[in-house]
Amino acid sequence: MSNTDLVALLPLIVVAVMGAVVMLAGAYGARRVMLHWLTILGIGIALASIVSVRPLAPRDVTPLLRIDSYSILFMTLLFSGTGILAIISHPYLRARRCAGEAYYSLLLFATFGMGVLVCSTHFASLFLGLETLTVSLYGLLAYLRTERQSLEAAIKYLILAAMASGLLLFGIALLYAATGSLVLADVAALSADAFTTAGSPEAIWAAVGVLMLIAGFAFKLALVPFHMWSPDVYQGAPAPVTALIATGSKGAVVAALLRLLSGVPADDALLPSVLGALAVVTMFGGNLLALLQTDMKRMLAYSSIAHIGYLFVAMAAGGVVGTEAVVFYLIIYVAMTLGTFGVVAVFSANANSDIDDINAYRGLGRRHPGLAMVLSVMMLSLAGIPPTGGFLAKFAVLSAAIAAGRTDLAIAMVLASAIAIFYYLRVLVVIYMDPKVTSDASRRKTNLVSETSPIHTTLGSPVALTALMLMILAIGIFPEPWLEAVGAAVSSMIGS
Q1: Cα distances (Å, whole numbers) of residue 251 to 16, 95, 164
Q2: Distance CA 130, CA 422 (A)
Q3: Residue 199 confidence (pLDDT)
Q4: Is residue 193 part of a domain?
Q5: How many CB atoms lie within 10 A of CB 454?
Q6: Cα angle value 139/142/147 (rounded, 5°)
Q7: Can you tell me the distance from the alpha carbon of 370 to that of 366, in angstroms, rounded to the nearest whole number?
């Protein structure tokens, strides 16, 4: 490996090294504030190093990793999201009197795993990045070890994530047996060729391997019917960790999956059908189940499931247009989901436990108008209401589906989005309702947030949430720069 290769990997190296530094600093008794700033510094240096990496792209660093505009875009997105989570996590941990010695190091190692995933061009690096991310998330989920729900969420995630990893590993082994390669592009192309010789051992191995691979990725992304773990884990996890699972974890897996799918021949008809079926059941399953929820985090869990279904509509559409729609949607999804969970984390920092009851946000608009505005914009964007970025994201997916002749998926997506409007608007109605309730018992149950005045937090959290809100509105009004960046990234990835 040359010095140029090391420079190309600088963002990943910085994140990994800073993770080790934070871990050692915590072991030697560094205070939470110092660990917090070391984490912010590490992510900031990693983001700055991306600027030095850009002139080197595209570049293959060993057969395992590729640094191109695609991976640079996702590293910028995911590293920025982690930085915002680090900012939001500080008042949350302070309120719970947590030292944070392991929390911040695990956050950086999870970021490293996400970075490896988006750069992977080989199943070996993909699996290593995925497992680094998974193990780090397990530690983060169990970080509040004195809370029963947190430990329960960690155990559920560990068991089901291990099963998903096993499926992926067996699927990779069978695909290697069928194709003789572990390079993502080669495996995708050779698997399609193997299917042409029906009845041969290679065709059987490839078919079973692809099915196991799809099931493994479906577990990681919480696609219906592989979504069982998601609501319970979202509900029990600390709010900042829930945000990481909903955004960074899923974003990195989708990025890796897109690179794998880019090698599938354009005339393949089976895979788009499978992806389309998963998209339909996931969209409707997520939205219908979200309608029944009174818990904020469980509602957002099912909402995240539905949004992954929207992404799969664009994946099923395929081609350059479909891939661009997926990436564009993913950018907006990360921003609006991070903003929503960020608001939940800010309010939960002022309580003994996470504030999950939707009715607890009653009267929020009058007591805390600034944060209520952020939450309102995020809800409108998640619902796909103009002029937010969420509207343009759904429009891009619908356009890709129609251009590919998948009118059935476009109609299904419109119907599923119409269902989603009801539970997003329900949140808006609640936060702008009169906070007065009749009984003291009801007041204690439903008015927890609105009566917590003022909100005690650091300056960084409101600034970060405001930046996310402005980003959502800016994309909705001026999408051209974002679309150009997405187009360049996708061209770089497909051209490789």
Answers
A1: 19, 29, 17
A2: 35
A3: 61
A4: no
A5: 8
A6: 165
A7: 9
SS3 at position 67: strand
> Is residue 459's pLDDT more than 90?
no
* Closest among 151, 155, 116 to 132, alpha carbons compared: 116
- Under 8 Å between Cβ of 302 and 228: no
What spatial distance separates the first Cα and last Cα of the chain, rounded to whole Å?
A: 20
User: Of 172, 147, 161, 472, nearest to 336 (Cα)?
Assistant: 472
User: Do the domain assignments include residue 296?
Assistant: yes
Quickly tell me which residue has 């499978």 as its tokens: 274
Structural domains of the chain, count? 1
Find, among 130, 108, 100, 134, the residue nearest to 44 by Cα.
Answer: 108
Residue the block writes with tokens 């963002």? 11
Measured between alpha carbons, how far is 88 from 244 in angstroms, rounded to an integer? 11
How many CB atoms are located within 10 Å of the residue 408 CB?
Answer: 12
- Give residue 454's domain range: 269-496
- AA identity, residue 435: P
DSSP, res 225: T
Distances (CA, A) of 110 to 3, 31, 103, 154, 427: 26, 21, 10, 15, 31
161, part of any domain: no
Check: CB of residue 108 under 8 Å from CB of residue 19: yes
What is the C-alpha separation between 246 and 235, in angstroms, rounded? 12
Read off the amino acid at residue 465: L
- CB-based contact 344:378 (threshold 8 Å): no
The residues pairing with 234 across neighbouring beta strands, listed in sequence order, are: none
Q: Considering only CA atoms, which of 133, 326, 346, 331 is closest in space to residue 220?
A: 133
CA-to-CA dists, residue 455 to 90, 95, 211, 417, 452, angstroms: 14, 12, 49, 33, 6
Report the C-alpha gap between 255 and 487 in whole angstroms.
15
Helices (H), 28-145: 32-53, 69-95, 103-119, 123-141
Cα 496 from Cα 263, distance rounded (Å) = 10
- Are the CB atoms for 334 and 406 separated by under 8 Å? no
Distance in angstroms (rounded) separating the CA atoms of residues 443 and 494: 56
Domain assignment present for residue 35? The answer is no
**The dihedral formed by the CA atoms of 171, 175, 181 and 184, expressed in degrees to the nearest 10:** -60
pLDDT digits (tens, 9 = 90+) for 385-431: 988 999 999 999 999 999 988 899 999 999 999 999 999 988 888 88
User: What is the C-alpha separation between 38 and 489, in angstroms, rounded?
Assistant: 30
* Angstrom distance (rounded) from CA 333 to CA 311: 10
What pLDDT digit, counting tens, does each position of 308-346 carry? 999 999 998 888 888 899 999 999 999 999 999 888 888
